[in-house]
Amino acid sequence: MRARAAWLGILAAATLTLAAHPLSAQDKGKTAAAELEAAAKAALQNLYASAPLAKGIGPTAHAILVFPKVTKAGLGIGGQYGEGALLKKGTAVAYYKTTGASFGLQAGGQQYGYAMFFMNEKALAELDNANGFEVGVGPSVVLVDEGMAKTTTTKTLKDDVYAFVFGQKGLMAGLGIQGNKIAKITPK
């Protein structure tokens, strides 16, 4: 029992440390920004190859925010962190980080990516309002799963933002983007 409590404490401390002090594109400079842009573009192309709906709405989106790799870990207390690029017409125009914390019945760790397709200018404007964009607050964000992707067409889409999660690796019960906070970072 003591060993379990010790491991829980170690994992919680490591998770919170990583979430609070990540080495970010903001800290690494312009080279990191170029690498992040390249990773975001490659991740988007991989998403397009596996999700025809994403490929179909890409050209009509005002912008696409791509987080190529988000790391999530937890044991009772969890955290997640990732960095991404906002692409307009295929070019990165800004860089963002996504963070989140969670509490409850959870154990494990995983990495995944996600892309948010901003379908109108109003939804995109919300991204930088109020010192950070919180998924689940503000414009409606629809998480597109495999079932929805198979039954939806570009003609039936009417929401502000569509999010696609891709490339899950690792083992962790439950995955979602609800409650993630997204904030702009500025490469130095």
Describe this structure in words.
The protein has one domain (2-185). 33% of the residues lie in helices and 41% in strands. It has helices at residues 2-20, 25-28, 30-50, 52-57, 121-126, 146-151, and strands at residues 63-88, 91-118, 133-134, 141-144, 161-172, 181-185. Strands 1, 2, 3, 4, 5 and 6 form a six-stranded mixed sheet that branches.
Which spans have pLDDT < 50 for at least 5 consecutive residues? 2-27, 147-156
Largest sheet: 6 strands, mixed
SS-derived structural category:
alpha+beta
Say how many strands there are.
6
Shape: globular
Layout of secondary structure:
Layout: H1 2-20, H2 25-28, H3 30-50, H4 52-57, E1 63-88, E2 91-118, H5 121-126, E3 133-134, E4 141-144, H6 146-151, E5 161-172, E6 181-185
A few lines on this structure:
The chain has one domain.
Keywords:
single chain; 188 residues; alpha+beta; 6-stranded mixed β-sheet; 6 strands; 41% strand; globular
